[in-house]
Amino acid sequence: MKIVLDAMGGDHAPGCVIDGAARAVESRTVRADQLLVAGPGAEIRALLDAAGLTTADVLDAPEVVGMNESPTSVIRTKKRSSIVLGMRAAAEGQAQAFVSAGNTGAVVGAASLVLGRLKGIARPGIAAPMPTRSGPCVVIDVGANIYCKPVHMLQYAIMADEYSRGALGKTDPVVGLLNIGEEEGKGNPLIQEVHALLQASDVRYAGFVEGQDIMRGSVDVVVCEGFVGNVILKVAEGLATFIGEQVFGALKVHPPRPEVGAAISEAFAHLDYAEYGGAPLLGVAAPVIIGHGRSDARAVMNMLGAAQSAVTHDINRHILERLAQSSGKTVP
In a 3-state reduction of DSSP, which class is residue 307? Predict the structure, then answer.
């Protein structure tokens, strides 16, 4: 197995990315010789050697993509960037997965145009694992596609179902459709059409769920439009950060007993995006893991773990098999 790691992706690249790779190797998440690290060749080689990752390979990519650059212009004008060359390496079989904490739009665009979509998939979707009372819940889509058709959301459900089974170990995932209420008849025409498609599909569909149901863990997969999902994700991240600041600020003023402080820290660790590393872009021809722009070394380590898991469990093969079983209901 080879995994392309975009060394230039994220607010703290490339040093933090290389530190994350070193942590992944130290924890035996991946081996150094499984890494194909994309970025300016001489600089990345020096950083890898300094980190002890001498057997990692370098993909020389001299152009850097900024976090705010237009995705379409990146693909057209920065063909020697770590994102475009890394995605091309995966498309040509030099690697089996791609990992980046860089410009999300550029990663999604390059994955769709350079790597290509899985046969039968109309639109790829970003599937973000979110913490709940009963383990991670996959919310899809959280930003890849803000203009959805019913078939897109049906396919999101199927893809996230298979990802939950393979990568997250859920034996029989329960799928919910995000809505403004649980009652029949609620929601706009799009939601009503998707509701009917999911009822007729082979996923274990539980019907409508509301925003608060995500954290309750009542379902394993929540399907929504990319615009709504992105708002949910960022509100959840901001709320977790705010609550953490308030709690730990109070603890500095009124320090608890050591065992209580340790328990609180452990609880808040489950709310940290770094715990899950990144979100898979489902529906493209090889596993692609997209990380938060603020990703630290621990997040990069877990992103590599997510990529390794997606390849090991052959998520794409299972998605294609499910699509074949449901061909009449999933062809756009």
Answer: helix
Separation between Cα atoms, residue 224 and residue 260, nearest integer Å: 38
pLDDT at 273 over 70: no
Q: Pairing between strand 97-100 and 204-209?
A: unpaired
pTM of the model: 0.91
For residues 20-38, b (16+ Cβ closer than 10 Å) or e, as one string? bbbbbbeeebbebebbbbb
What pLDDT sits at residue 72? 81
Q: Domains of the chain by range and CATH?
A: 3-121+283-313 (3.40.718.10), 125-271 (3.40.718.10)
Number of neighbours of residue 256 by Cβ within 10 angstroms: 12
Please confirm whether the linkage preceding 14 is cis (ω < 30° from 0). yes
Confidence band for 124, pLDDT divided at 50, 70 and 90: very high
Q: What is the DSSP letter of 63?
A: B
